[in-house]
Write a structure and sequence with these properties.
The protein is mainly α. The chain has 18 helices and six strands. The structure holds arginine. Arginine binds next to helix 6.
Length: 458
């Protein structure tokens, strides 16, 4: 008769709804590979302390590899009583190697096992996510590099402010993602900590060599406190915080592009590959890719916030509440991975309309430059700001642009204006004036490109 792994002290049966409620296999089977790797390392560790003979170890590792291959090939058949990935693998191992499988869990608990699996699994995912983030950064930088000459209005409050290079805008988003890349890399040492060998909470009673386990599994360090080792899920929170912030950047980038893709702006057109139509309005081409990127940020933030609430107030070490770490983490990994790839595709394939950007530039975006012209002639900026403002008001009253005012008009506003004032009304000159580090001049845009390319190489 079948009995649960932990069934010894039980006489009553589990309520069927409780059984399903408790069962995590449907989602934690994603960690099958990490679970097998952890068990193989642990089996070797058991041999080192004499719990397994070398022959037993060999048999056990062969069995574990067969179980792992079943998962990889999609042939593993879960049984009704498999509670989670750990019990499922142990049950299946027993079907291959018999009672010897019962030695594998010596000194180990699912508490140190699951914490180890989660860290191993997440480390693999972080490596993938890092590549995807670098992919997104690369298209942003490449696009900026190829479109450095395009000028457009830069906005504050969504009102036209000053002329900028289109590349400068793209790179402003890339700067955020560069910080995200650094932050992601900084998470790794805190994820890469070995819990295995912590036992259920108090430590391992068979002198297992944890330094050996660390090396076998490729962790950077060892959990120095067994209670922390089994109870800590901060690495999951931190990853989800990282994803929340990264998605905030994704959402702001998307918002810019959604606005710029409207007919009213017309700066960019998304490729068909990343747009969808309307079921009723035949003319529509909607930026659904960008809207989903913006929308996913809410869900990812929710995953993080939800799990933080789960953790808050838990007593020390392992509590079953911790099983609730998996679905939000898996969902976060899936959605951030997809989002990074979609964003890369959108940016790589969209059309950018330099003429439309240029047309959106009007001379009022040069009012700051006009004020700065007088500053260069010795007038304090606070005064020149007013004089330029009066030029704007005069042009407005005449229904023309400030660039269409005459030299006589300017001279009436301030005696320091001379005929070279007309040179102010050139967008190229304006952007080239912003030549300090971080400005929108060509040299400074090129400087940003090389800084970002170096970060991508890291
Ligand atoms: N499925 C469990 C989880 O994800 C594994 C650990 C179970 N440990 C225990 N003491 N019941 O958290």
């Amino acid at each position: 008769t079948k009995q649960k792994l932990w069934g010894g002290r039980f006489t009553g049966k589990t309520d069927p709804l409780m059984h399903a409620f408790n069962q995590s296999l449907k989602y934690d089977q994603r960690m099958h590979d990490a679970d097998i790797r952890g068990s193989i390392a642990y089996a070797k560790g058991l041999t080192k302390v004499g719990i397994l003979t070398p022959e037993e170890e060999k048999k056990m590792i062969e069995g574990l590899k067969i179980v792992g291959k079943e998962w990889a090939d999609g042939l593993f058949v879960p049984q009704e009583d498999d509670e989670d990935i750990h019990t499922a693998n142990e049950r299946r191992l027993g079907e291959f190697i018999g009672p010897l499988s019962g030695k594998l869990h010596t000194g180990r608990s699912r508490n140190d096992q699951v914490a180890t699996d989660m860290r191993l699994w997440l480390l693999d995912q972080v490596a993938d996510v890092e590549q995807s983030l670098k992919g997104l950064l690369t298209v942003l930088v490449d696009r900026a590099d190829g479109e450095k000459e395009f000028l457009m209005p830069g906005y504050t409050h969504l009102q036209r402010g000053q002329p900028i290079r289109w590349a400068h805008l793209l790179l402003s988003h890339a700067q955020s993602f560069k910080c995200d890349l650094e932050r992601l890399q900084q998470l790794i040492p805190r994820i890469s900590v070995l819990p295995l060998g912590s036992g259920p909470l108090a430590g391992n009673s068979f002198s297992i060599d944890r330094e050996f386990l660390r090396q076998e599994l490729g962790f950077q360090s060892i959990a120095e406190n067994s209670m922390w080792g089994v109870g800590d899920r901060d690495f999951i929170v931190e990853f989800m915080m990282w994803a929340s912030l990264t998605m905030t950047h994704m959402s702001r980038l998307s918002e810019d592009l959604i606005i710029y893709s409207t007919a009213e702006f017309g700066f960019v057109t998304l490729s068909d590959a990343y747009s969808t139509g309307s079921s009723i309005m035949p003319q529509k081409k909607n930026p659904d890719s960008l809207e989903l990127l913006r929308g996913k940020s809410g869900r990812i933030f929710g995953n993080m916030a939800g799990f933080m609430v789960t953790l808050k107030g838990l007593p020390s070490t392992y509590n079953k509440d911790l099983q609730e770490d998996k679905e939000p983490l898996f969902d976060t990994v899936d959605n951030i991975s997809a989002s990074l790839k979609i964003a890369e595709g959108v940016i790589a394939t969209m059309d950018v309309h330099a003429e439309k950007m240029r047309q959106a530039l009007s001379a009022d975006a040069l009012a700051t430059d006009l004020a700065e012209y007088l500053v260069r002639k010795g007038t304090p900026f606070r005064e020149t700001h007013h004089i330029s403002g009066r030029a704007v008001a005069l042009a407005e009253s005449r229904g023309c642009q400030i660039s269409e005012l005459t030299l006589e008009d300017f001279k009436k506003l301030d005696s320091k204006f001379t005929d070279d004032v007309m040179k102010v009304f050139d967008f190229e000159t304006s952007v080239e004036h912003r030549a300090s580090i971080g400005g929108t001049s060509l040299k400074m845009v090129e400087r940003q490109i090389s800084v970002l390319r170096a970060a991508i190489q890291q």
